[in-house]
Each structure stands twice: as C-alpha cells, then as structure tokens.
C-alpha cells in the first residue's frame, strides 16, 4: 500500500490548498485505489494560512468576525482558534491578512486607499477572546500602508502636523508627523509568517517591488510611498533595511514594532502541522502551487517540501497551474502542469479541480512506471 502525503499550497485565486489536496487524492486513487492519503495542505503565510491550520489541527474552530475590508466595505471573515497547549494555555489564534485585508478581496486595485485595518480588527477580536499566542500570516496584501491600518485597529494613532488623524492607506503616509503608541494594546507572543525577506524601503523595498502589483503606476508614485515609509520607520524606530520589514506593504515592520517575530512562513506552518513527521512515514509527497517558476525556490512551499522529502528519503512530486522553463523540476521525481494537461492556461484556471484530479492520475502512473 502506498502512503501519499498531500501538501500543496493554494492555487491563488482559483482553489484552496485543502481542495487541491482532495482533487489530487481523487486522481491518484483512480490509478491506485489502495493508497493511503495524509492531507497536510500547506501555506507560507499568504492566502490559505488559516485553512491550512484548520485542516491539520484537530479541534481548531473558526471564529467569525466582521471587519473593514480593503475595498472600503465591511466584510464577513474569520480567524482560527487552536486548542490550548502547554505553551499557549488559552489557545492560539491564527489570523491571515489575505482573508481580512488581502488583494483577492478587491474587484479593482486601490493603491492609495486600501489599508490593513481589517487585519488589525481580526487580531483585536482574537485578543478580546483572551488567546495566549497569535500566529499571523501576512501574504497577499492589498495595500502599502506600512501596517498603519493594523496598528490603528490595535490602538495606535497616526497624526498630521495639526494633530489630526491622517487619511488611511498609502494616501496618508506622507502626512504623518507624529505617532502615538500610548494606546497600543500589549502584544502576546506573536509569530509572523512570511515568505518575503525584502526591506521596507529602497530598490528592493515594499513600494518598489510590490507597489506596482497593488496599483502604484508611476516612478513618482513609488518614490512618494517609499519616502512615506522611510519617514514612518523613523517615527516608529524600526530598521527600514531589516529583512522582512517590507512584507505586506510594510506590515512586517509594523508587527516588529508591536513585538512580533518574523519567521519563514513555509517552515513555520510545516512545523506547526507536523509535516516532517508525516513525510518521514510516507512513500510519496505531492506539493504544488499556482505557478511553479524560478522564484519558487526562495522559501516557497514546493522547494521547502522538496527539501523535507530529500531528508526523509521520500519521493517528491509537484503539480502546478503552470511550470515555467526556469523552474527547478530536478527537485522532483515527477511533475504535472495543469496548463499542459488542459491545453491552455484559461482552461486550467476555469476548472482547477478537474485538472488537479488529472494531475493526480498522471503522477500516480509515473510512480507505478
């Protein structure tokens, strides 16, 4: 009997990691009906972090919350309560930015006005519940607000020269003349999951690298936001060049100010869901993501999973929405591209579950060959 660990990341905007794992299992079982499956859907701090913990941790409970979303409207979302442990006797809250202030929540980009207030409001709800620890994933941000929305929701104030609150989002960054942290809520233990090591400012900073994805269109826009982030860093007393401080439009820096500890998302999630132990007892591990490309080797889920599999002597396989020419497929015993199986990117995006089932079939046949 073949033991298969299913540990894909979400296929961003098309299918969750848990649903991707289920589809891969269906496809594999059509070839190998006696296979035993262990579901360990993964995340690296971005979209799907809450779902990954929910699927892997027995007794996890979704806690509904209503927050101010990045589109300027109230949204219904949730955070996840994990059962008490010796290290966290009142439980751990898992909150991801993607489901509270994420870019996938927008129908159109709002580079100047989207902010991280909803993320902070969900964190505040978890603190009100009395949790001992927070685990927060900060991928998929819709904004470049330096985390000011999040900190404001936790009690901080960002004021202009006249002592009035500045506008939310990147729009208000340039007007910040003073920061009042006297009302900021005390932080519990806070682990911050991210796959980004960029600094807050400069050519590799939040505005320059990620700002265009969020709608900053011109070099002048980027310079304006970068200058605002640099000024904010000085007022908060945080290193603008610190690794990871540029994550989520500068939310990484804001969380460091609050007392959070930045950690590589994939490895932290893997440790918390017992992935290495599951892989050590498996014959095959299948991972995947929407696009497996040249950037997937830098702390992303597939490369991290391949490393765990190599250490355990377990065969690793990958299924991805697309696999580019610069992707390091040598890490895997077999690979399957949904785009190739479906015949086009549009077809793969339209029916990801169907083509993931087909990918599972392909990978099972390769294992039997």
TrEMBL record:
<dbReference type="Pfam" id="PF02595">
    <property type="entry name" value="Gly_kinase"/>
</dbReference>
<dbReference type="InterPro" id="IPR018193">
    <property type="entry name" value="Glyc_kinase_flavodox-like_fold"/>
</dbReference>
<protein>
    <submittedName>
        <fullName>Glycerate kinase</fullName>
    </submittedName>
</protein>
<dbReference type="GO" id="GO:0016301">
    <property type="term" value="F:kinase activity"/>
</dbReference>
<keyword id="KW-0808">Transferase</keyword>
<dbReference type="InterPro" id="IPR036129">
    <property type="entry name" value="Glycerate_kinase_sf"/>
</dbReference>
<comment type="similarity">
    <text>Belongs to the glycerate kinase type-1 family.</text>
</comment>
<dbReference type="InterPro" id="IPR018197">
    <property type="entry name" value="Glycerate_kinase_RE-like"/>
</dbReference>
<keyword id="KW-0418">Kinase</keyword>
<dbReference type="InterPro" id="IPR004381">
    <property type="entry name" value="Glycerate_kinase"/>
</dbReference>
